[in-house]
Structures are given as C-alpha cells and as structure tokens.
Amino acid sequence: KAGVTQTPRYLIKTRGQQVTLSCSPISGHRSVSWYQQTPGQGLQFLFEYFSETQRNKGNFPGRFSGRQFSNSRSEMNVSTLELGDSALYLCASSFYWETDTQYFGPGTRLTVL
Amino acid sequence: GESVGLHLPTLSVQEGDNSIINCAYSNSASDYFIWYKQESGKGPQFIIDIRSNMDKRQGQRVTVLLNKTVKHLSLQIAATQPGDSAVYFCAEKNTNAGKSTFGDGTTLTVKP
C-alpha cells in the first residue's frame, strides 16, 4: 500500500505570497490532519479533516486554511506568507479519526524569504 | 544510558543498552497517547500507543508506561540499536476534543 504523499517536497516563496500544499492519504483513509513543525515550536496541530469536513482546528491565524476533497485528498493554503511561516508542513492520514493510528507523509519544506 | 522521570532533549546510549525516554503531558483530559520516531528528512513514524485505561503496553522491543497520577509517559527501548537513532516525540490527545498535542522531542543517539 502506498504511503502518504505530499507535494511539493520543497518550496521557496517570498513574503506576501500565498502557497498551496497537497496531501494524498493512504488509500482508504478518510481522515487527514496537518501539522507545522519548526525547531522553535516543535510539532503543532493545524487542522483535521474527515469526509470533507473540518473536525478540529489548532491555534493558527486565519491565513492558514485547508480543505478536503471527496477522494480524501487534502490541500492546505497559506496566504500572505510571513517569514515565520517557514517550516516543515506534515500531513498525516488515518482511516477514521480519534484513536486511529496516524501515518505521516515526508512533509513539504516551505522557506519564506 | 538511561534517564527516568526527567525529560531530556538529548539522550546518548551505547548499542545494546536499554533506553528510556520520558515525556510529561499537561492535559488531565487526555485519554490517548502516542509515541513517534522521526528520522532525519522523514515524517514521524508511529511506534506505539496507549489509552488512558491502561498503564503499560508492550510492542516489539518497545514498552510504553503511563502514569496518570503525575501525567507522565515513558518509552522504553530494549537492546537499543544504531537504527534507533532518531528524534522521539510523545503526543497526547483528548479524543473528545480531537486535537493532538506533541511534546518536545528527544534526540536519541546510539553509539556503536
């Protein structure tokens, strides 16, 4: 079974731009969660989607948004990029949510200049 | 090469020794706990989980202990190998609220 895939793997943007990251979950998984990982803040939860509905949201500004499609693929968007948005963005999928095991993708490394 | 009780950002052990990685969690309502391993350039990988109605769970070479009284979680790795070198994270989750909170990672280095 193929794992979680994320595209692109690396991205360089400038301040003020916007970016869209993509995540394809493991086949059959319906829950997708997004995380931001930085050296200073560690792993922080962004949001979780299940069956195209956002179930939970972390404490991030409204510039961070996401969506999930009917095939469970998910995208996250960051608008008006700031230098502090430079991070590794990780996507994780699970069959259901709650206590189902999450499988992480390799992440998208976003650098904001 | 062991540390008990205190969370350390780094841990160095000899190959073959047992390792103990500690984590303190903050939310008394958390009822699900997970340990992840993250190797350089990769996403976190699930190692083992435990629910709050248990205090111990064993996997292959790994054991997780949960002490709800002091809100403490530990991961024990038996016969540590060079391939175990990675950053280890604990995560807590209140399954009613849904959000996962990750602890500060511990970088485990295994010396041959």
Got a strand count of chain B?
A: 10
- β-sheet strand percentage of chain B: over 45%
The 3D shape of chain A can be described as: globular
Report, as a whole number of angstroms, the end-to-end distance of chain B. 13 Å
Mean pLDDT of chain B: 90
Distance N to C terminus of chain A: 37 Å
Topology of chain B as a string of helices (H) and strands (E): EEEEEEEEEE
| Number of helices in the DSSP assignment of chain B | 0
- Sheet-strand content of chain A, in percent, reads over 45%
**Unreliable residue runs of chain A:** none
Describe this structure in words.
The complex is a heterodimer of chains A (113) and B (112). With 113 residues, chain A is mainly β. Chain A contains no helices and 11 strands. Chain A has strands at 5-7, 10-13, 19-24, 31-38, 42-50, 53-57, 64-68, 74-78, 87-94, 103-104, 108-112. In chain A, strands 2, 4, 5, 6, 9, 10 and 11 form a 7-stranded mixed sheet that branches. In chain A, strand 5 (42-50) and strand 6 (53-57) form a beta hairpin. The N and C termini of chain A lie far apart (37 Å). Chain B is mainly beta and 112 residues long. Chain B has no helices and 10 strands. Chain B has strands spanning 10-14, 19-24, 32-38, 45-51, 56-58, 62-67, 72-77, 86-93, 100-102, 106-111. In chain B, the strands form 2 sheets. In chain B, strands 1, 3, 4, 8, 9 and 10 form a 6-stranded mixed sheet that branches. A 4-stranded antiparallel sheet of chain B has the order 2-7-6-5, with no helix packed on it. In chain B, a hairpin with a 6-residue loop joins strand 3 and strand 4 (45-51). Chain B is globular. The model of chain B has no long low-confidence stretch (mean pLDDT 90). The chains are: A mainly beta (113), B mainly beta (112). Chain A binds chain B through residues 4, 33, 35, 42-45, 48, 55-56, 58, 90, 92, 97-99, 101-107, and chain B through 32, 34, 36, 41-46, 49, 51, 89, 91, 93, 95, 97-105.
